[in-house]
Amino acid sequence: MSAFEELYSALGSDVLAISVPLFELGEEQLVKFGGIEPRGAGLDASGRLGMITERSHRATDTSADVRERVYESLPQIAAMESIVAVAAVEWVRISVGRHIDQPSIKVAIHHRRGLAVTLYEPATWHAGEGWEFGDVIARAGEPLIATWPVVSSR
Predict the structure, then answer these.
(1) Nearest CA among 88, 93, 43 for reference residue 67
(2) pLDDT-derived band at 117, boundaries 50, 70, 90
(3) Residue ranges of the domains in the chain?
């Protein structure tokens, strides 16, 4: 087992504590609005989750503008001593097997102990039935906080 896999296993409860509410938020927004407004979150050592919402400042703001502000706000949250992990949720398209350009909810997580992981939940629209959500896919992720360590997936 790699160091990344060991750390992912050891921090599983923190990964769940921060990712499950973000996936639920993403699913809710997708069902209600047909899209996901990027959001961030910080998890403290006691397991409390705080959500980060960045609003559009101009009528011309896009979700990419909001996404950028969410990611820019994460280091400020991470600077608080009690925060053990930060994350962001957004709507993306990924390639999974033979499914090219698969719509998915993405949750990027960075834990203070060095775990950077990205989780994807594929979503498929069925006319007349609504959204169907697939199994979550985990991949080694990119660091969200420059001053926090990152354990390699190799």
Answers:
(1) 88
(2) very high
(3) 3-140
